[in-house]
Amino acid sequence: MSFAAVEMTGVAAPADPINRNHNRVRAWNNAGGTSMGNSTVTLRNHEECPGDRWAAALRRRFPGQRPGTLDTKACAIAFGVSARTAEGWGGGQAPNLKHLVRAWRLFGWGVVAEVLGDDAADASLALDRELAELEGRLKLLRHNLGQVGTRTRR
């Protein structure tokens, strides 16, 4: 029975006495999830999966020889990881927090905002606007202070 059928009918699949989560995992898989091992289940919806957004962000920053591919060697060197880890990232594996921090140090906040999604991107844009406004005010203040200094020297 699919997850959608359970939702619509309210009838759950019979319980498995050996593995209580088996039916939930099966329903999850039928709804579009992918089972990863015995106990770990991840959602693989391209627009909503941070791993896929991470892969896309890395492909833009480390383009491979063919369009849309990742230069895993350059990526691995930049992040100090194995080529296998970089290949996993290119395939949609989400990074650890330390790798997001490294990406932030290498490329700025924008890459983290890309990976975390729309809310983070909106927050990043708001912070960028606020920073630009503060820099403009600081520039004006310096200009005004410079004029005060020239008036007192006369």
Structure overview:
There is one protein chain. This protein has helices spanning 3-9, 22-30, 50-61, 72-79, 83-90, 97-107, 109-116, 118-153, and strands at residues 33-36, 40-43. The chain has a two-stranded antiparallel ribbon with strand order 1-2. It has three domains: 3-43, no CATH class; 50-116, 434 Repressor (Amino-terminal Domain); 117-154. It is mainly alpha-helical and 154 residues long. Strand 1 and strand 2 (40-43) form a beta hairpin. Helices cover 64% and strands 5% of the residues. Mean pLDDT is 75; it is low at 1-9, 13-22 and 38-46. The protein has eight helices and two strands; from the N terminus they run H-H-E-E-H-H-H-H-H-H. Helix 3 packs antiparallel against helix 7 and helix 7 runs antiparallel to helix 8 (118-153).
Main attributes?
434 Repressor (Amino-terminal Domain), 154 residues, elongated, two-stranded antiparallel ribbon, 2 strands, 8 helices, mainly alpha
Count of domains? 3
CATH topology of the largest domain: 434 Repressor (Amino-terminal Domain)
Mean pLDDT: 75
Q: Going across the major beta sheet, what is the strand order?
A: 1-2
* Estimated structural class: mainly alpha
Radius of gyration: 25 Å
Q: Quick one: how many beta strands?
A: 2
Biggest beta sheet attributes: 2 strands, antiparallel
CATH architecture of the largest domain: Orthogonal Bundle
pLDDT below 50 for ≥5 consecutive residues: which ranges? 1-9, 13-22, 38-46
Distance between the termini: 88 Å
Assigned CATH class of the largest domain:
Mainly Alpha
Given the structure, what is the number of helices? 8
Q: Could you state the order of secondary-structure elements as H and E?
A: HHEEHHHHHH
- Roughly what fraction of the amino acids lie in strands? 5-15%
- Helical fraction: 55-70%
Query: What would the principal axes of the Cα set say about the shape?
Result: elongated
